[in-house]
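Incident log, structure service

09:12 report received: a user says their structure output differs between two submissions of the same chain.
09:20 pulled the input from the user's history:
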Amino acid sequence: MIGQTDISWAWPWWTTMVIINIGNLIVAMIVYKKSLKFKDEKDPVYLKRMRIMGAIVVIVSLYRAIFVSQYGSQLAWFDSIANSALLIRLFASVAEVSFSGLFALAILKFNTYLPAKEGLRDNKFKLFITTKTPYVLITCIIISQFVDTFGVITKHVLANAIVETLWSIGFLAILPLAILQLRRVLRIKDKEKTRQLLMLKKSAIIIVSWCLIYCLYGLVFHLPGIWSNTIYLLETGIPPIKTGINAIIEAFTVVNETKLYSDWGFGFLLWHSAYFSICTWISIFLMQAPRPRDFRRKYNPKINLMTVILIIIALITLLTLLGLPAEFDDILVILVLGGIVFIPIAFILFLEIKDSKSKA
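09:34 re-ran on a clean worker, output below:
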């Protein structure tokens, strides 16, 4: 693990994360502005909700990328109320609910635009998977926000383990439906209809990829370590639980130590890098409201160029992480996850360029 006393090594990494999120904000502003032009869409409420939730995620990601909590103890101008634990948690709650809302609403609308042909009434399990699991995701994430806020105030070690478990349960719940939707859209062979459903195809690929990676990482690597550490801390009684108004005041005024990570360890860097890059990219795509489109658009190299730049910057961040002190298994995990993540992104970019050129 990396020590707390010297964080000079972190400046290139921190600068990269901030640049990525500034780029994300620029792209999101372009997407948001373009979405305002689609006034003749059949479902304007859907578009409005998706662009608002996406914008919230992007703005909060930039805020949190700038105000990395541990810097507050090193830099006087960071050591302020803007970096307080409770304030960050309140902003994060809005962003995380919006993030899950993008997934849930996109999946529900997919069922509307491309419904399952087979009957669901006779199969209650399939009916539940198809119609209820998006609400399971939203419910899990909303509950996790209350638990997480409780943990920030009281410093109860059990809170973080419960929060991470709820997140894994939520995305695990929608994984079967996401796979079914991907299979549904891939079955379509008609070229014209395939073009119309291209956004749905991309969203299905992204959602399945995210759910698989997140759930595998959580269930195999992340949750076992968190729960074992939590059980150990519960047995030792450290840290002590805080209560009363003083606990709330302290959560507002004291700089956060970023959950369970008391140092700049490899786990924190992995979490922070993925949280404020990949999650934001997914949100930017989903805020476009995946739906059938029937129009001819000109080839726009600017958005594709911006995507390539963001991927290159992300690769630099990945290489920076690999250059930090870490165990071999940590390096192996980041290599595998990095490869799995960038393959879908590159594939989506390839589809975008191919589709745009074919319609030029």
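09:41 both user submissions now match this output. Likely a transient worker issue. Closing.
09:42 reviewer note: The chain has a mean pLDDT of 76. The chain is about 75% helix and 0% strand.
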